[in-house]
TrEMBL record:
Protein name per its UniProtKB record: Energy-coupling factor transport system substrate-specific component
Pfam families the UniProt entry points to: ABC_cobalt (PF09819)
Entry keyword annotation includes Transmembrane helix: yes
Transmembrane segments annotated in the record for this chain: 12-32, 44-63, 68-86, 118-140, 146-165
Native organism: Texcoconibacillus texcoconensis
Signal peptide as annotated in the record: none
Lineage: Bacteria, Bacillati, Bacillota, Bacilli, Bacillales
Keywords noted in UniProt: Membrane, Transmembrane, Transmembrane helix
Length: 202
């Protein structure tokens, strides 16, 4: 859907606005993640990582054009840095790699499918990219292979559930308010409502 079409001004504004909001939330989520890690260790941290992929998936689900997931993650990362992240280099790197991960999932389906399984796959690709990036940057030598495996598993689950399913729920809720009627998601929902209305009259 919309493959090959460039973003219009309205789409850029909405994508940027959503990404900026999530960039601010991302910074706050780090402190929550550190709190959880102190209680549950790296496995608990893994369960939270899907949140850091939501900006890209929500924007891609709403706009449905190539490059949106990557651009949204990059804007969110840039915002996180501007509002006070102390690890600017790593945050920017994660924005790039997570964006590429999520974008790859949509590209595999030629940007024609934005169904829940594809969104969940995008979340999993994004959290896997997070895992690889942090492994290269920080290393996990202090953890056993079992703990590292469990952390990766929880990150993939978080990517599927929190980033994939959660992003769909957030975007669908926004669409129901009518604010997305001029975007691909809103147009699809409006078409579905019309079809249901016609079916109920038959």
């Amino acid at each position: 859907m919309n493959q090959g079409k460039s973003l219009n001004l309205r789409e850029i504004v909405v994508m940027s606005s959503i990404s900026v909001v999530f960039g601010i939330l991302y910074l706050g989520w780090i402190f929550f993640g550190q709190f959880m890690q102190g209680i549950t260790g790296p496995v608990g941290w893994g369960l939270l990582t899907g949140f850091w992929i939501m900006a890209g998936i929500i924007c891609a689900y709403i706009i449905r054009k190539p490059g949106v997931a990557f651009a949204a993650q990059l804007i969110a990362a840039g915002t996180e840095i501007l509002v006070g992240s102390v690890n600017a280099g790593v945050v920017l790197l994660l924005g790039v790699t997570q964006g590429i991960g999520a974008e790859l999932a949509f590209a595999l389906f030629l940007y024609r499918s934005y169904k829940l399984p594809v969104l969940m796959l995008a979340g999993m690709f994004g959290t896997f990219a997070n895992f690889i990036t942090t492994y290269v940057v920080y290393g996990y030598s202090q953890y056993s292979s079992l703990v590292i495996g469990l952390m990766l598993a929880t990150m993939l689950i978080s990517g599927a559930v929190l980033a994939g399913w959660g992003s769909k729920k957030v975007a669908d809720s926004l669409s129901q308010t009518g604010v997305l009627d001029n975007f691909a998601l809103g147009k699809l929902h409006r078409k579905q409502r019309v079809e249901r209305h016609v079916a109920n009259q038959d």
